[in-house]
Amino acid sequence: MMKFATLAALVASASAFAPAQQSARSSVALNAERSKSLPFMNRPSLLDGSMAGDVGFDPLGLSNIDEVGIDLYWLREAEIKHARVAMLAVAGVLQVEIFGPAPGCEAATAKNQMDAFWQIWGSHPQYIAAALLFIMVIEAFSGIAATSGRESGMRAPGDFGLDPLGFKKGDADKFKRLEAQEIANGRLAMWAAAGEIMQGMTTDEGALGNLMSALKDNSF
To answer: What DSSP line would sit under 87-131, residue for residue?
Structure first.
């Protein structure tokens, strides 16, 4: 009888802790499904952290689109492409503002980037036509690479095998860190390029001119 009472007490005490353990496991599982960037939302199923810069940010659910001929592969390809173009654009705008127009483009004297574009169009329209033709060729090769890579699964989005410094052949962890830095700086550059154009059209000043004016107007 004493042994039975002891056994019953042990079973009761163990069952008292079981719901707490199960609740803890459920809580851990729930937290694991939350987005890192938006903890109040569930992590999108396809954003598992395997891509550089992936923090589960997709409030509109674009990563799950697959009915209109695009999917996560195409969206990632577009993001990387625009990130790289934006980084070049931001650097180009600052280079022109600091050092002046490139040889042959002396007509672009406006500080506003859009006005400078139309100045070049008015004086040397062949430059714009050549640039558009060059962009068409690049887009054609990019589209072929993206389509074949999407179908074969043998190419990562944005990978054109361009690695003259051999970063990919070095330390794998360092290369992953470089990939994350590229997409982070590219995302920032997309905002910066849009800001440069918007401010230039609003104030007719260049990016650095707007920065200096802001510092001067808001200094203590």
So the answer is: HHHHHHHHHHHHH-PPTT-TT---SSHHHHHHHHHHH-HHHHHHH
Residue type, position 62, single letter: L
- Which residues, in sequence order, are CB contacts of 142 under 8 Å at separation 6+? 77, 81, 160
CB 63 within 8 A of CB 166: no
The DSSP symbol for 64 reads G
Question: Taking a C-beta distance cutoff of 8 angstroms, is the pair 157, 80 a contact?
Answer: yes
Residue 134 CB-density burial (10 A; 0-12 exposed, 13-18 middle, 19+ buried):
exposed
Question: pLDDT tens for residues 21-70?
Answer: 444 444 444 455 888 888 888 888 888 888 888 888 988 888 888 777 68
Model pTM score: 0.77
Maximum Cα interatomic distance, the chain, rounded to a whole number of Å: 106
Distance, CA of 38 to CA of 59 (rounded, Å):
8
Among residues 181, 151, 176, 138, the alpha carbon closest in space to that of 73 is found at 151
Amino acid symbol at 71: D
The Cα 26–Cα 19 span in angstroms is 10
Q: Is residue 87 within a helix (H) or strand (E), and if so which, with residue range?
A: helix 72-99
CA dihedral 60, 155, 141, 144 (to 10 degrees): -80
Exposed, middle or buried by CB within 10 Å (0-12, 13-18, 19+), for 4? Answer: exposed
- DSSP-derived 3-state class of residue 154: coil
d(CA 37, CA 63): 15
